[in-house]
Design brief:
alpha/beta, Zinc Finger, Delta Prime, domain 3, 4 domains, 5-stranded parallel beta sheet, 11% strand, elongated
């Protein structure tokens, strides 16, 4: 009983069946038609993009007597070899044949090996696994092999191949296969296997394949074990991923600054046994697409998302936020994903902390709160009645600064450029300084007296000028929290 996987069963036998590598197909087919071959080829690219498949098709077509438009005919003696490791085609896994002695043995075989006519072709898969000494042993032979010998090297990590090897090969870079091409191939397989599965399910599987046809077909085979009439919800449960609606719901709550709802959504995901890392990766990709839509709604062809309904919803979400917020979230999510070997609960905690930091406005500086301000332990409540009794406002402060500038108070004017008048209350101005060196000068008795004299002249009434910094607010905030928790009798000592 033959128990072939779907990927083995549907491995392409013609160049046209290899999706996403059109220009490589055309070049290799033209070489077959013209019978013009180079002595060494290097196929590079990520897994499942067709490198080994193209090498096998190409090696058969080279020795095919009656090739059809650059493809092997599969009728002649050379094409009907049952074993890929025939006399004319030798396929080796460099990962298990990576020593210098094994490569030397291969070179010796070139001199005395048998030929059944045509070319002898060596396919070295995962060639980057060879040792440095093995590469050096191969170098001379690769440069000047026998006239009827062709090497086809395949690798997923081109950066590990010595430049001396690369320069002696005709190199072809296999790109990731587009989602639409993967879906097309999956549809073909499902139709031939009489499998009922909806379009959205195939989109999810293709998306999870990350540009790899082999991975996508393997995922399809895994999904099919679930049963017949597969739906998109079935696929999500099997693969441990969530729907786009969940992600959109989370982003909607984030953009509306609704922390409580955001945390509930993450809790729900965890309860439904969704793989949090996959969810964060999907979240990152959707944020990237929203940024592109925010920059230009005409960028739809650049998006990872291909579903028109989802793109339409992302356009609506883009109107709820800014580029800066999107960039911040994307950077922080990338930082989470770059952390190595995290557990599911750790990914969840990092995501929750990110949302708390980004959305929890209650922990911001007290000076941003419209109802009160606290400086050095003193809390001043600002109700509507107090505000109405205030003598001045932000416009009055700007007018005061212009007054200083016009009346030769340039030193005071320069000092007051290093901060803002945050609150006006009961003939008092609370000035937040953002420069530590200037803060010390502003706190000196002489400077405060000069500022208060200028304020009195301008407003025709005595004004108290108080200076503080962010650090003082944070320190005061912490002391207040500790006293509320431990009681007013607690003594706080700085060391």
């Amino acid at each position: 009983m033959v128990n072939d996987s779907l990927y083995t069963k549907y491995r392409p036998k013609k160049f046209e069946d290899v999706y996403g590598q059109k220009y490589i197909q055309e070049i290799l087919k033209n070489q077959i038609k013209l019978k013009k071959f180079t002595h060494a080829y290097l196929f590079s690219g990520t897994r499942g993009t067709g490198k080994t498949t193209c090498a096998r098709i190409f090696s058969k077509a080279i020795n095919c007597i009656h090739n059809e438009d650059g493809n092997p005919c599969y009728n002649c003696k050379a094409c009907n070899e049952k074993n890929i490791n025939s006399l004319n085609v030798i396929e080796l896994d460099a990962a298990s044949n990576n020593s210098v002695d094994q490569i030397r043995n291969l070179i010796e075989e070139l001199r005395y090996s048998n030929f059944s006519g045509g070319y002898k072709i060596y396919i070295l898969d995962e060639v980057h696994m060879l040792s440095i000494n093995a590469f050096n042993a191969l170098l001379k032979t690769l440069e000047e092999p026998p006239s009827n010998v062709i090497f086809i090297l395949s690798t997923t990590e081109i950066r590990k191949i010595p430049q001396t090897i690369i320069s002696r090969c005709q190199r072809f870079g296999f790109k990731n296969i587009e989602i639409k091409d993967i879906i097309k191939r999956l549809k073909y397989i499902c139709e031939n296997e009489n499998i009922l599965i909806d379009e959205e399910s195939l989109e999810i599987i293709a998306y999870m394949g990350n540009g790899s046809m082999r991975d996508s077909i393997s995922i399809l085979e895994r999904v099919l074990l679930y049963g017949e009439n597969i739906t998109s919800n079935d696929v999500r449960k099997i693969l441990g991923i969530t729907s786009r609606e969940f992600i959109f719901e989370l982003l909607n709550s984030i953009f509306k600054k609704d922390l409580n709802t955001s945390l509930k959504i993450i809790y729900k995901l965890f309860e439904e046994d969704v793989e949090i890392k996959l969810f964060i990766e999907d979240l990152r990709n959707i944020l990237r697409d929203i940024i592109f839509l925010k920059l230009n709604s005409g960028n739809k062809e650049l998006l990872n998302e291909k579903n028109e309904k989802n793109i339409e919803y992302m356009e609506k979400l883009s109107n709820l936020t800014s580029i800066s917020d999107l960039s911040f979230l994307l950077d922080k999510i990338n930082e989470i994903l770059n952390k190595n070997l995290l557990t599911e609960i750790e990914y969840r905690i990092y995501l929750e902390l990110l949302l708390i930091k980004h959305l929890n406005t209650t922990q911001k500086d007290y000076t941003e709160n419209k109802s009160f301000i606290e400086i050095k332990g003193e809390t001043i409540k600002l109700n509507e009645e107090n505000k109405s009794e205030s003598l001045f406002n932000e416009n009055s402060w700007e007018e005061f600064l212009n007054y200083l500038k016009k009346n030769t108070y340039m030193v005071l004017y320069s000092l007051l450029q290093h901060g803002n008048a945050e609150r006006f209350y009961d003939n008092r101005i609370f000035f937040k300084c953002n420069t530590q060196g200037i803060l010390n000068r502003l706190k000196s008795e002489n400077t405060i007296k000069q500022i208060e004299d200028a304020l009195k002249k301008f407003f025709s009434t005595p004004i108290i000028f108080e200076v503080f910094s962010n650090e003082e607010i944070k320190e005061s905030n912490m002391e207040d929290k500790m006293r509320r928790f431990f009681g007013d009798d607690v003594e706080i000592e700085n060391k």
